[in-house]
Design a protein that fits this description.
The complex is a heterodimer of chains A (about 375) and B (about 120). Chain A has eight helices and 19 strands. With about 375 residues, chain A is an alpha+beta fold. Chain A folds into two domains: about 300 residues, no CATH class; about 50 residues, no CATH class. Chain B has a domain of about 45 residues. Chain B is of the alpha+beta class and about 120 residues long. The chains are: A alpha+beta (about 375), B alpha+beta (about 120). At the A-B interface, α4, α5, α6 and β7 of A face α2, β3, β4 and β5 of B. Chain A: GO terms for molecular function: ATP binding; ligase activity; metal ion binding.
Chain lengths: ~375, ~120
């Protein structure tokens, strides 16, 4: 894994905007093609293998959490537990997730699993693919995200309820809309009948007891870029189990168990000393060097990095009410003062590609930049 | 290496075509959250006044829709469904009664500016 400085395309802003990538720059740059990471095929194979194995381990962990009634560790409201278990037993469909890895000195370690609402899919699947077309199309890239999304929807098509597949996200965020519309684009290419409705506008019909869109069309299948932990705490959350259409929400209810950082101590308990896992517990467990993370948080908020009792680095935020986990400190590698995290996608149960976010600090936050990659050697 | 072997070892998508997203999003801008701007508005004829806020950047379009109810005709009757505005508190549109119709809205979406993760 090497960090290579390169010249951005002369017209890169126009090139990415032509793809519909409208949030490449905000108050700070987000898409950064002045640098890329180069991987060997051996390194990519290692990431691919770990992604597949961890996905299967996560499914085992979900079963273990349910069998042993460990929900209290996850801060999940009691009323939603029967719904989670039903979604698992009835095999409600899932399409994707993203493992975040630290790759250093030949070791690949799982930092967390974004199993419910992972973003940067469009950057990884589309923008960096077209960057490589311009840069050197003879080179390879670990990125079959687009193909796997279309294939995944084709497979799921026969498992969905009759009717449209609706898509939803928050109204006032171009980043979320881009990710959602990209996934919808792939579903359309797979032959699905789709429709967008903003989550702010979703309706609940008191007479028929079903969710409806803006035209009051009943919803039966819904892809949502909106987290379960928010849904179950909002007013309409209580309607989900009483929905007469038994809507398939994608990602499904059982993903509440995998998108929660309480998963990390469970994985370590089930698969101790696995080469891709870091020791993780619900308390410091005598560790001298650890990262304290809220079980529910976003964009690197409320993280403490502790080294021998000293606070090495921390981030502020509004998370932590539901509790914390403690994971052994395994610092991100430093390349020219930058710290890369590898996001490895699992789509339709298969490893599908990676995206890299670079930060100026050990904590990857909302100021991180997306950096492309290629395979060389 | 034969062409078929090359295909097996390839890690990137062979071809990418987008049918929806470029046309929809290419000209969009990204609104930024502005939690300082606040507006007090009446959500409907049965709810009390609510203190709400909204993100900036939408200007006149937001104001146009903020006060216009939407709904639909069904069985000869007009059913009011709410307002096309994320600026209205979900509590203003919650619940149902004969005036509002059977559909309530705004029960999701009150929890953040972006899911970004």
């Amino acid at each position: 894994m090497q960090r290579i400085i390169t010249a951005p395309r002369n017209n890169w802003q126009a090139a990415v905007e032509k793809l519909g990538f409208g949030f490449h720059t905000t108050d700070v740059p987000y898409w950064d093609e002045s640098v890329y990471y180069s991987f060997t095929m051996g390194e990519i194979t290692n990431i691919e293998k770990a992604t597949q194995e961890l996905w299967e381990m996560c499914l085992g962990a979900a079963q273990h959490i349910m069998d042993n009634n460990l929900y209290v560790r996850f801060g999940i409201p009691e009323w939603v537990i029967p719904y989670i278990e039903a979604s698992w037993q009835e095999d409600h469909p899932a399409i994707y997730g993203r493992f975040d890895f630290c790759y250093k000195n030949g070791q690949l370690k799982l930092l967390e699993f974004n199993a419910d609402t992972p973003t940067s899919l469009y950057e990884a699947g589309i923008v960096q693919w077209f960057w490589l077309q311009d840069m050197d199309k003879s080179k390879d890239q670990f990125n079959s995200i687009h193909e796997k999304l279309i294939d995944g929807w084709k497979t799921l098509k026969e498992y969905l309820h009759p009717g449209k597949l609706h898509f939803t996200c928050l109204k006032q965020t171009l980043e979320d809309l881009t990710n959602t519309e990209y996934i919808r684009d792939c579903a359309m290419q797979a032959g699905l009948d789709t429709k967008l409705v903003f989550v702010d506008d979703l309706g609940w019909n008191e007479n028929t007891r079903v969710f409806v869109d803006m035209e009051e069309e009943p919803i039966t299948n819904m892809f949502k870029l909106y987290p379960w932990e928010w849904m179950v705490r909002e007013d309409f959350g209580r309607h989900i189990p009483e929905d007469n259409n038994r809507t398939f929400w994608i990602e499904p209810g059982w993903k509440m168990l995998l998108s929660n950082k309480a998963l990390l101590p469970i994985l370590w308990e089930l698969y101790p000393n696995h080469p891709n896992l870091l020791p993780a517990y619900f308390d410091a467990h005598g560790m001298q060097r650890f990262v304290k993370k809220p079980i529910l948080s976003r964009e690197g908020a409320n993280i403490d990095l502790v080294d021998n009792g000293k606070l090495l680095q921390y981030s502020e935020g509004n998370y932590g009410r539901e509790g914390y986990i403690f994971q052994e400190l395994f610092e991100l590698p430093c390349y020219d003062g930058k710290y890369p995290v590898i996001g490895s996608w699992v789509i339709a149960q298969q490893p599908a590609g990676i995206g890299i976010r670079e930060s100026d600090t050990l904590i990857t936050d909302n100021k991180s930049r997306f950096v492309p990659h290629l395979i060389d050697g | 290496m034969s062409p078929s072997n090359r295909k097996v070892n390839r890690k990137k998508s062979v071809h990418i075509q987008l049918i929806l997203i470029t046309a929809v999003l290419a000209s969009c801008h990204r609104p930024t959250p502005d939690h300082q701007r606040k507006v007090y508005m009446r959500g409907d004829s049965t709810a009390g006044y609510n203190r709400t806020h909204y993100g900036g950047g939408l200007g006149a379009v937001m104001w146009y829709y903020a006060f216009r109810p939407y709904g639909s005709y069904y069985g000869g009757n007009y059913y009011r469904a709410g307002y096309y505005s994320g600026g209205i508190s979900e509590h203003a549109n919650m619940g149902s009664n004969p005036v509002k119709g059977a559909v309530s809205r705004g029960g999701f979406g009150g929890n953040g500016f972006s899911v970004s993760s």
